[in-house]
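Subject line: Sequence and fold of a protein, written as structure tokens
Body of memo: The sequence and its backbone structure tokens, given next.
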Amino acid sequence: MATTTSRLLNLLSLLQTRRDWPGTVLAERLDISHRTVRRDIDRLREMGYRIQTTMGPDGGYRLDAGTELPPLVFDDEQVIALTVALQAATMTGAGIEEAALRALTTVRQVLPARLRHQVAQLAFEAVPRPGDGPATSLSPRLLLTLSSAVRACQVLRFDYASHRPAVQEPGPTRRVEPHHLVTSHGRWYLVAWDLDHDDWRIFRADRISPRTPAGPRFVPRGIPGGSARDFVSARFKGSGQANAWPCVGTVVLQQPAATVLPFADDGTVEDLGPHQCRYTAGSWSWIALAASLNRFDTAITVIDPPQLTEAFARLAARNTATATGQL
């Protein structure tokens, strides 16, 4: 019985890794006869798995979605990945924290002892980066509504709440072609083509209140940058085109590279010796870049471009006025 059970679990694991499996390949992988494969397939069907027989010169089998959730089989790496994903679910702001905790508890209860011990050590905390806003909480139903509109390529109508808490009246109803859902730093965003403004827009999902019925279907447009990730990243950097900072400069810092690296963010650091390094970084404006470089609390020599030198001069004048009270 143990041999049969182990064989069934191995067969199920194989069926879950790809869509179609020729019967001869399954027999070779499991080191059993084709007849035994057929019997084991029948046993899995009796357990609730929907396994279709495929036709062709080398007939095989396909695991389809069923009406109920039968037992699942995960290998060790999948169990660890599932554990990490469920623990990290509290960072998504998707309103599934309690459900994720219940699922994690269920997974831990059915693990073999060797895996349960390893998984128990996978305890971690998510620390937000400085400057990240608080994670917003959305209802899973809202996310499903938005993602369904994206998948169906159907015009979405919704009210969009103001970002100012004191403003209670919703703005005009928006009509958009939804293209992608994106999550970043605990917030969810909808990337869409705004039909009323003839332009791409990024909407905070927690401010969206969908209206019914939905609009007609549409043909998806090509998104700037080629992907929703690059488009959103570019807009967050203040760039309307490429996913890059609009203002990039290079300086020499009188600090060793090892001291600068932990605070370099997405900049690049080149070691110039024990007491200095070359640092290239970007920001949404030259003034912002100059101000951010002062965080290293050291002498700075601008290499390129001249706009960065001018920004340091303007920033110095502002700081002097602030220090002397001559604003």
In short: The first helix runs from residue 2 to 15. The chain has a mean pLDDT of 83. The CA atoms of residues 320 and 326 lie 8 Å apart. The chain has eleven helices and twelve strands.
